[in-house]
Automatic annotation (TrEMBL):
Top-level taxon: Bacteria
InterPro entries in the record: 5peptide_repeat (IPR001646), PA_immunity-related (IPR052949)
Protein name: Pentapeptide repeat-containing protein
Entries under PANTHER family matching the protein: ANTIBIOTIC RESISTANCE PROTEIN MCBG (PTHR42999), PENTAPEPTIDE REPEAT-CONTAINING PROTEIN (PTHR42999:SF1)
Amino acid sequence: MTGIKVRVPKINKLLPESVWEESFEEEDASVRAVCVEGGQATSDGRVIFDGVLFRKTDFRGFRAPASELLDVVFEGCDLSNADFSRSSLHRCEFRGTKLTGAIFSESMLRDVKFTDCGGRYSSFNFSKLRQVVFEGCELESADFVDCSMKGVEFGRNRLNDISFLDTSLDGIDLTKAEFSRITVTPSKLPGCKVTREQAIGFARTFGLVVEED
């Protein structure tokens, strides 16, 4: 059970589940956005999703940078290589969703929860994360470079080859995470909670020779 309190999305129970119209083949985000209930396109091409539940929806390659997602749930969706860079995500949940190569760089994530998601090669570089929980996710080779993280929890996730370069890990608990190698900035490590075995792995990464008992 998570120790971080994340406010859940406020979804109108009367709102129908949203799906893309299969008849549209347009790749332009502003055109595709008007095909979903609760979605709208702004004059500058940004997309706004407000109070929407997406279930088993295909967003592969969807491009919607600088957009706004408020009270949105993605359940069993495919967001592989989707681009939500420079976006604002507030009270959102990603459940059992594929996020391979998804881009959330330079974004603001507040009260966001990722559960049982596949996020290999996903990017959160230069983003601000506030009250964000990752649980049961595959985040191998994901990038969290130069992020600002407060109230962020990495539970039972696979983090091998993840990069936290230039990101402060103060207050971050990695004891439940599974990894053999991650990239960190030594000066940003103080305050990070790890197991004894993980600490030995960090020491070896920094070139220290650890004598076994």
